[in-house]
Design a protein that fits this description.
Elements lengths: L1 H15 L2 E4 L2 E4 L12 H14 L11 H13 L10 H14 L13
Antiparallel strand pairs: 1-2
Helix pairs in contact: 2-4
Length: 115
């Protein structure tokens, strides 16, 4: 009984915060865009996903500089998106597909998505 109440409370808080379940992953519909000049863990998540997706060895330094922007643009181009070098919801959807394969569930809340 206590577990059911706890699970319900977690779901309620998650829904309130804009985090929804997607199978084993959780994505954020309210995470802000990630763009050139950004820094921190959210950028590391982008860099990890791009490294895995393209089999590259970009530095995972948490700084969204020209190299990260170049690979975000490549992902957008390959994914048929408008190429602007910014991780918005649709680029985030592409990154989430890769993050689901990497096991970096800690990144899900930082990547903007449509789901």
């Amino acid at each position: 009984m206590k577990r059911a109440k706890l699970a319900g409370a977690v779901l309620a808080v998650s829904a309130t915060m804009g985090v929804v379940g997607a199978g084993a992953a959780s994505a954020s519909t309210t995470a802000p865009q990630i763009a050139y000049g950004a820094s921190g863990y959210k950028v590391k998540c982008v860099q990890v996903a791009l490294n895995y997706h393209y089999g590259i060895s970009m530095s995972v330094d948490g700084v969204f500089g020209s190299t990260t922007q170049k690979w975000v643009r490549q992902l957008q181009s390959d994914g048929g998106l408008s190429v602007d070098g910014v991780v918005g919801k649709y680029t985030g959807n592409l990154l989430m597909g890769t993050l689901n394969k990497t096991g970096h569930s800690d990144c899900y809340a930082y990547i903007p998505t449509t789901y």
